[in-house]
Amino acid sequence: MLKPVNDHIKENLKILFVGFNPSIRSSETGHHFANPNNRFWRILHEAGLTPRKFDAAEDAKLLELGMGITNIVARPTKAADEITKEEYKEGQEILRKKIEQLKPRVVCFVGKGVYQEYSGLKKVPWGRQEEALVPGTIDFVAPSSSGLVRMRVEEIVEIYKGLGAVLAHE
Q1: Where are the chain's structural domains?
Q2: Number of other CB atoms surrounding residue 5 within 10 Å
Q3: Contact between 2 and 76 (Cβ < 8 Å)
Q4: Sheet harboring 67-71: ordered strands across?
Q5: Residue 85 C-beta-side C-alpha neighbours within 13 Å
Q6: E strand intervals along the chain
Q7: What class has domain 15-169?
Q8: Could you read off the pLDDT of 60-90 as tens digits, one per residue?
Q9: By the 8 A CB rule, do 160 and 103 touch?
């Protein structure tokens, strides 16, 4: 039986990262973005969001930097396409409640598909969204950090750098 991965969340975060769901590797280790092919930790560092490249085992340390991690669906799977519509619908409601309670300044969706499932919108640009679903927060859409994503890591890092710019203007 695969174990869910605990959220690392608290009130008034600068950034709350939201992934699709935990990978099998994350379920085995108990840490977010633990698959060695996932570039999340490298991207955060290269975008200037962390002072060094963290290891997945240090995921809870993001809280010290005012950042947290959760997922739209808690059930670990090998691939995001295994997530059912019902799971997304339930996850969307749970996520919205978390955001309303925790009031992060920015909610960064790690993958356009995550935001599409959360918002119900089909056309979504990268970066800051015109309107947040939860008033008082900012919705920001960034590429998935999965090694399966066909974008160059440099392009992905540029989009993540936008998070720093958004925070600087708030």
Answers
A1: 15-169
A2: 25
A3: yes
A4: 67-71, 15-19, 106-110, 138-142, 127-128
A5: 1
A6: 15-19, 67-71, 106-110, 127-128, 138-142
A7: alpha beta
A8: 999 999 999 999 999 999 888 899 999 999 9
A9: no
